[in-house]
Design a protein that fits this description.
With 388 residues, the protein is α/β, with parallel strands linked by helices. Helix 13 packs across helix 15. The N and C termini lie far apart (53 Å). Strand 4, helix 7 and strand 5 form a beta-alpha-beta unit. The strands form two sheets. A seven-stranded mixed β-sheet has the order 1-7-6-5-4-2-3, with helices on both faces. Strands 8-9-12-11-10 form a five-stranded mixed β-sheet. It is 39% helix and 15% strand. The mean pLDDT is 96. It has 15 helices and twelve strands.
Length: 388
């Protein structure tokens, strides 16, 4: 296509039309495929020609989603998985083996923390945490056996940010793979591959779907790295269903429009909360008070749809606030059209110890707000009444 604007590509890139000349891509709900003859089957399984052999390996719907995401994020290739955590697990296990070390941001999703702390040590894979805002920790944290640097930026739920160009330079200097969880930003707001990352991961369950309907994960990177991902994923089986891929591909058509509104609403909510006397702290990338505000402005198009606040009064005050919300949903999800409130200490990050939570900025009064697409007056009105 001649057009290179994000919105046009997200809408107009799609699988080749069939003989029926459909305008919208059809669903390919098939587990397997027919071969022309015995030689065709042999050649496909021998990777001597391209084509579909089994939907655990590839399907026209997952292919379309992957190709769209790769173009939108600026990567050569990609892979689709059943969930965001399947994407993270597949990436780790493809490139790590016993004896390897991971240098990770301390503020990571609760399930990623469980992998690093409780599952990988059983297989001889070690880790070190570093704080996103302390660059000296990243240089000191590299060991002779460090094979991967893993970061979430913006982080969940602390909204911490690191300079990806700086981190990519550090990784390349030490011949270490840089993997970025880009879930909060989406390819519309931030493109880690273009900033120097080797691999970018998404929980497509969140903003990419955007309507709380389905699960999915996306892994993006170079053709070489994705060939290795394919080798692991084809046999370990974290495949995305064709139906979910179809939904997510259609969702990409409205991603830019939705993210514009998410960001516009979230910025206004962040400004409202920062001016409120009952709020101890507000974290949002495009607030000038954010510690990494200048970095956020450099590497992100807008601030995203997540606002994290700390309410005075600890868990009791946080519970009262959440229970008084009328329009917001209380849920562990995020990135929905509907505004959502989450208490990380008792839900998404409940398996961390209190000390571990405090290290990543999660207090008992911390609340993560996923700001939806409702009218901003109704969103702020609901928050204001709950704070009253």
């Amino acid at each position: 296509m001649q057009e290179d604007n994000f919105e046009t590509l997200a809408i107009r890139l799609q699988a080749e039309r069939t003989q029926f000349k459909e305008h919208s891509v059809p669903l390919y709900l098939t587990s397997s495929y027919k071969f022309d003859d015995a030689e065709d089957m042999r050649a496909l399984f021998a990777n001597e020609k391209e084509g579909n052999v089994y939907s655990r390996y590839a399907n026209p719907n997952t292919d379309e989603l992957i190709q769209k995401m790769a173009v939108l994020e600026g990567s050569e290739a990609g892979w689709a998985t059943a969930s965001g955590m399947a994407a993270i697990f597949t990436t780790f296990l493809t490139f790590l083996q016993s004896g390897d070390h991971v240098l990770s941001s301390r503020s990571v999703f609760g399930s990623t923390h469980q992998l690093l702390n409780n599952i990988f040590p059983k297989w001889g894979i070690s880790y070190t945490y570093a704080d996103l805002d302390k660059l000296e920790e990243w240089e000191k944290g590299i060991k002779p056996n460090t094979k991967m640097i893993f970061v979430e930026t913006p982080s969940n739920p602390g909204i911490d940010i690191i300079d990806l160009e700086w981190l990519a330079s550090l990784a390349k200097k030490n011949n270490i793979m840089l993997v970025v969880d880009n879930c909060f930003a989406t390819p519309y707001l931030q493109q880690p591959i273009k900033l120097g990352a080797d691999v970018s991961i998404h929980s497509a369950t969140k903003f990419i779907d955007g309507q709380g309907r389905t699960l999915g994960g996306i892994i993006l990177g170079s053709a070489k790295h994705m060939k290795e991902i394919e080798g692991f994923a084809r046999h370990s089986g974290p495949a995305m269903s064709p139906f979910n891929a179809w939904l997510l591909s259609k969702s990409l058509e409205t991603l830019a429009v939705r993210m514009d509104r998410h960001c516009e609403n979230a910025m206004k909510v962040a400004e409202f909360l920062e001016a409120h006397s009952g709020i101890k702290k507000v974290m949002y990338p495009f607030l000038p008070s954010h510690p990494q505000y200048e970095i956020a402005k450099k590497q992100m198009k807008q601030g995203g749809g997540i606002v994290t606040l700390v309410i005075e009064g600890g868990v009791e005050a946080a519970s009262r606030f959440m229970n008084k919300l009328k329009m917001f949903s209380i849920s562990a999800n995020l990135g929905d059209t509907r505004s959502i409130a989450t208490h990380p200490a008792t839900s998404t990050h409940s398996k961390l110890t209190e000390a571990e939570r405090l290290q990543v900025g999660i207090e008992q009064g911390t609340i993560r707000l996923s700001i939806g697409l409702e009218h901003i007056d109704d969103i702020i009105g609901d928050i204001a009444k709950a704070l009253a």
